[in-house]
Amino acid sequence: MTCEDRKISVGLLTVSDRCFRQLTKDISGSCMRELVDGGSHLKAKVLVEECVPDELEAITTVLTNWCDSMKVNLIFTLGGTGFSPRDVTPEATKAVIEKEAPGLSLAMIKMSLEITPLAMLSRPVCGIRKKSLIVNLPGSPKAVKECFQIIAPSLQHAVDLITGSNDVAETHKRMQSSALPAIEHHHSCQNARPVDAGTVAFRPRHSTFPMISVEEAQHIVLNHCNVTAYEAIDYMSCVGRVLASDIFSRDPLPPFPASMKDGYAVIAADGLGVRQVIGASIAGSQLAEIKVHPGYCARISTGAPLPPGADSVIMVEETKLISATEDGQEELQIEIMAQVRRGQEIRATGCDIKEGDLVLERGTVLTPTDVGILATVGQTKVEVYALPIVAVLSTGNELQESKIDLQSGRIRDSNRPALLTFLKQQGFPTFDAGIAEDHPKALHQRITAAFEEADVLVSTGGVSMGEMDLLRHILVSRFNAVIHFGRVDMKPGKPTTFASCQYDGKTKLIFALPGNPVSAIVTCHLFVIPACKKMSDHEKHLPIRIKAELSNSTGLFHLDSRPEYHRVTLQWHSGKPVPSAISTGNQRSSRLQSMNRANGLAILPSKTPEILTIPNGTIVDVLVIDMF
Fold it and tell me: Does 212 map to a domain?
């Protein structure tokens, strides 16, 4: 069993007086649990969690018990590492560890200092007791996430070393082989020497990135997405945006007792019989204009305020005209033909919405109906989560703009226009980063310009194994980016790369998508749009998944060694419990026509020695990518 297959046990110890006394929720503990469960480098399982106050004895007692009795492999403490008088977690950790691990502490502080100078006030201690590794993390969820991500790649190997695992040698071998592309040696050179990885003959022949599943890739992406700030916008521009604060009614609705029908405002106690008509209450009239006394009534229209003195409304259909003016313009007397109840056909003040009622909750994705509610309660400025700005960059010497005549050896850039308009259709603001030639200087300039304007960079091309595929190298060498994954087990889209970096004090996310047009669109659906939704605080990020029945003109679907995201058109038929997923034809990743009528991606399984094809009628999962 390799270290990839084996999970290590984790303990989470929150150190906080307020959390211990349940005065506040332990958000950092929840954040850490999600990171451990979804870490790409760390195959781990949270075995035990506890919260203690900022007291030396309480902390040391738990750490000692977890190390000595429970033999927890990896222990994270959360909080208590600052300068406050009660911050004693480092001292408690030093009291129980047998060896320090300063490299982990230095790595976290170095990374944190690139984000905020206040990181110099953090005092994390990391060390080993028996066969357990203890790591001090800060108390804020943001800092916990940042620190964990920087040390996560080393933790599995650290635990293997501490526990004496047989996987240590294997890990060393794998780490050395993964470094070969950077110092590749020509196999025929008698005097072997390091060579430039950018040299054509010595470029990597195999990707050094592990192949991960689409689900794992999506999990990694979403774990790196932070919700953006919020902004106040006009209510008429807020459809599709996510509320950043609760909305309360400023007035009751209706603001006065209002008639539900066209008829007469009466006094219920008067009962049946003839009434003198003294006037009318119509929508928009003032309440004090008329007053109803016993034996009298007033005409009233739907939505009009109930006149003072009246307590009920009777419909026109339940009355009879007795007398009117000669010209018929005014009614003088009517007869009540049906019994009347007090409060009949009246909407009481505030019966729909009371003053101060919560009408829309924070996190609501606003619809046109919600705009009507906002208008009703007089809230014309609303706070919503800001949208991430997405820059789109195409790379490749062969690309040219579409507006000019086609030049020899060139092709028109279709990826950038398609992705820019797709992102706009999804409601996200964009920045056109243009076309970059396959040259380090050109790539650096274009990426820098994109980072100046945008929160997210989406590029296409430059991430495969060609001699001009330089994008990953530029991101790491020029921008100190961390590449979180570089290969995904899918067709199309295998070279999809996701990275992040700090630029001008802000985190930038980078999606380096394949250059083939269909690959770019498919991976944008699966990774970029979910990330943008998470950053703008949408609760649901991933495409809707349904069951559908495969249909193909050939009767068979040929399977690939990778799971395939097959473009299909979903059609519903009466009497069938699931829709048909009809193939759009040739699925080459360069054939954009296979995408332009697709509203679904059918997930076909990988082939096996026993199963190379699946027939029409097979039920598969389909991702809905268009709402028709």
Answer: no
- Compute the 3-state secondary structure of the chain and give helix, strand, coil in percent, each to the nearest 5: 30, 30, 45
- Are 554 and 260 a contacting pair, CB within 8 Å? no
Is the Cβ–Cβ distance between 124 and 167 less than 8 Å?
A: no
Whether 156 and 288 share a structural domain? no
Token readout for 454 is 């945008």
User: In the structure encoding, which two tokens stand for residue 212, read together?
Assistant: 């991960």
Residue 12 is assigned to a structural domain of this protein: yes
Q: For residue 241, what are its two tokens? A: 């945006």
| Residue 300 β-bridge partners | 263, 281
d(CA 36, CA 10): 8
- Collapsing DSSP to helix, strand or coil, 482 comes out as strand
According to the model, what pLDDT value does residue 184 have?
Answer: 34
The two three-digit tokens of residue 592, written as one number: 């954009």
Shared domain for 406 and 526, answered yes or no, is yes
One domain for residues 57 and 132: yes
On whether residue 202 sits in a domain, the answer given is no
Contact, 252 vs 396, CB < 8 A? no
The CATH code of the domain that includes 238 is 3.90.105.10
Distance CA 156, CA 153 (A): 7
The percentage of residues in the chain with a pLDDT greater than 70, rounded to a whole number, is 88
Residue with tokens 């005065």: 23
**Which structural domain, as residue segments, surrounds residue 553?**
544-624
Sequence-ordered alpha helix ranges (H) in 524-591: 529-535
Three-class SS of 354-365 = CCCCEEECCCCE
User: What are the structure tokens assigned to 463, written together?
Assistant: 């991430």
Residue 180's pLDDT is what? Answer: 36
- Tell me the C-alpha to C-alpha distance, in Å, between residue 246 and each of 236, 356, 362, 383, 388: 17, 11, 5, 9, 22
pTM: 0.64
Query: In this structure, what CATH number is given to the domain that contains residue 291?
Result: 2.170.190.11
Residue 194 has pLDDT above 60, yes or no: no
Both structure tokens of 149 = 């991500």
pLDDT digits (tens, 9 = 90+) for 383-421: 999 999 999 999 999 999 888 888 888 999 999 999 999
Q: What angle do CA 514, 519, 525 make, to 5 degrees?
A: 110
Which residue has tokens 């039920």? 619
Give the distance from CA 402 to its chain's centroid.
Answer: 33
Domain tally, the chain: 5
Split at pLDDT 50, 70, 90, the class of 119 is confident
Assigned domain for 191 exists: no
Burial, 479: exposed, middle or buried (Cβ in 10 Å; 0-12, 13-18, 19+)?
A: buried
Rounded Cα distance between 521 and 624, Å, is 14
Which residue intervals of 114-224 are DSSP H helices? Answer: 141-163, 167-179, 214-223
